[in-house]
Design brief:
Layout: H1 9-30, H2 40-52, H3 62-89, H4 94-105, H5 108-119, H6 123-148, H7 152-156, H8 163-196, H9 205-214, H10 218-233, H11 235-238, H12 244-254, H13 265-273, H14 277-280, H15 285-325, H16 336-351, H17 354-365, H18 369-391, H19 404-437, H20 446-455, H21 459-487
Helix pairs in contact: 1-15, 2-10, 3-6, 3-8, 3-12, 4-6, 5-6, 6-8, 9-10, 9-17, 15-18, 15-19, 15-20, 15-21, 16-18, 17-18, 18-19, 19-21, 20-21
């Protein structure tokens, strides 16, 4: 008699986890993890000294940079919400869903590099770099909220009611609560995106942070970082719904979204700059193919490979960190004091953008993949650990449940693991997206070659490489979604429906 193999849910989880774990281990084996800096201990000491003695006076125009960071974020998120609403109304069209997926797959820094060529070093560049990908993100979220909302009010409207009437009177009121919660979270993300736009020259907090750290002035760099932490940490106290129009009006007054590019820049960009080099002269289709093949062999394929390796290793490190860190904020482990310290640590890690963490770690460890893996794992692991710890608040506690390590391994972890796996699969595409732009710091992912192409004014190459990053992100998003469906995982089930998903 042949042995029957039961296809249980737990077995599917084990098999999926095993394959993802093996892929992560293989990525670690082939990844470049060399520590290139000769004396990282000395540099760590200097950085620690700087963080213990922050110097606000050492950084000029820090308050102007703070105002720019806020202005770009408010305008970009507001424009993204408006664009997302328009797209969500037509979310049933496949073309709208595909277009939204493409624009949100391009990172804000890549959009910033593109708009630097179109609108110059201006507020409009910062606003559009945030607004366009956020429009795609909001469209997806709004569209899915509408699909999952109660359909009965719409059916109760008089026959012949138009699509817009149905949307505003029977659909939109049902999802306003979740939309406000998600909008507040996206503003926090917009502030992080606005800050790191300083790394490509825009006058936000990231510009002063990069300048201070590259010059070795860690006291000034620490001051800028503390100002950013204070901004994010106090968001819930100063972000009130009634004040949002005031903040938006102040943002428009402080940094009007105007272009500083010379006349004719837009026309030249689309008619000449992004036209592949072989087609600018008398080149044939064969010349175009050789140009594309050479670009793929020299930059495209190496960039794709390094992006895939780094992100896969980071996903495994994220999973390990999340499983180790969620007890820091869970009421099932530790006391109120330890949970408070855990909340503070996770708040700092998830508030600090991966790009900033990678930049600091690159100064310590050199331009290998190791700083990128650590930065992505710390930031994303803190997010997953925080949401997992929040989920344990709702687990019913038995009086006879085991304590300590046994309670973790045999009671808590098996019950929350589906949610952990769902969150990791959801973050997989986001990790891939962030991995690509780490190349701007010197790690040889796709962003490294994109940044080099922009620096050399080879915009045709840059757009092809950005297209490769988009294709990779869409592929990973598709695989993640299919795997979640296969495992019957839902990141919005249960109490997670009340949590803003990063």
């Amino acid at each position: 008699m042949t042995e029957q193999r039961w296809q249980t849910t737990a077995r599917r989880f084990r098999v999926a986890s095993l394959w993802l774990g093996l892929a992560g281990l293989l990525a670690f084996v082939v990844a470049d993890l060399e520590i290139i800096t000769g004396t990282p201990g000395t540099e760590i000491g200097r950085i620690a000294t700087g963080f213990l003695s922050p110097d606000l006076a050492a950084t000029e125009f820090i308050w102007q940079a703070l105002a720019n960071t806020l202005a770009f974020a408010f305008q970009g998120v507001a424009l993204g919400i408006a664009g997302g609403f328009v797209l969500a109304v037509f979310w049933h069209h496949r073309l709208v869903r595909a277009g939204s997926a493409v624009i949100r797959a391009v990172h804000e820094l890549f959009w910033g590099l593109i708009f630097l060529q179109l609108t110059g070093l201006s507020p409009l560049t910062g606003v559009l770099a945030i607004a366009i990908p956020y429009a795609g993100i909001f469209a997806k979220v709004f569209g899915e909220f509408l699909e999952e909302s109660d359909q009965r009010p719409a059916l109760a409207l008089p026959e012949g009611s138009g699509r817009l009437t149905t949307f505003f009177y029977a659909r939109l009121p049902l999802i306003m609560g979740p939309l406000r919660t998600y909008g507040a979270y996206r503003l926090e993300c917009g502030l992080r995106a606005s800050a790191i736009l300083g790394f490509i020259g825009l006058p936000t907090l990231g510009f002063h942070l990069e300048t201070a750290f590259r010059q070795g002035d860690y006291s000034a760099g620490a001051a800028v970082l503390y100002v950013f932490f204070l901004l994010i940490g106090t968001l819930r106290f100063w972000l009130h719904r009634r004040l949002v129009p005031v903040y938006l009006g102040a943002a428009l007054w402080w940094a009007p979204p105007l272009s500083s590019a010379p006349e004719g820049t837009l026309r030249r960009f689309f008619t000449s700059d992004i036209v592949p080099a072989p087609l600018k002269g008398d080149g044939s289709l064969a010349d175009l193919w050789h140009w594309f093949a050479r670009l793929m062999m020299e930059q495209g394929l190496p960039g794709l490979w390094h992006t895939l390796v780094l992100s896969t290793a980071a996903l495994l490190a994220t999973a390990v960190l999340a499983l180790l860190l969620f007890p820091l904020v869970s009421p099932r482990f530790g006391n109120r004091v330890s949970r408070g310290a855990g909340h503070l640590f996770l708040m700092i890690m998830r508030t600090t953008p991966e790009f900033l963490l990678a930049f600091i770690l690159l100064l310590l460890l050199g331009p290998s993949m190791l700083p990128g893996i650590i930065a992505l794992a710390l930031h994303t692991g803190a997010i997953v650990a925080y949401l997992t710890g929040r989920f344990t608040l709702y687990l019913p506690a038995r009086a006879d449940r085991p304590r300590g390590l046994q309670g973790y391994a045999w009671d808590t972890l098996p019950r929350i693991y589906p949610n952990v796996l769902a969150l990791l699969l959801y973050r997989w595409e986001i990790i891939m997206r962030e991995t690509a732009i780490l190349g701007i710091l010197g790690i040889t992912t796709l962003g490294y070659y994109v940044d080099a192409a922009f620096a050399e004014f080879r915009f045709d190459r840059a757009l092809v490489l950005i297209g490769l990053a988009v294709a990779l992100n869409l592929l990973v998003d598709h695989l993640s979604r299919r795997l979640r469906q296969h495992l019957r995982l839902s990141i919005n089930s249960g109490q997670f429906a009340r949590e803003p998903m990063p």
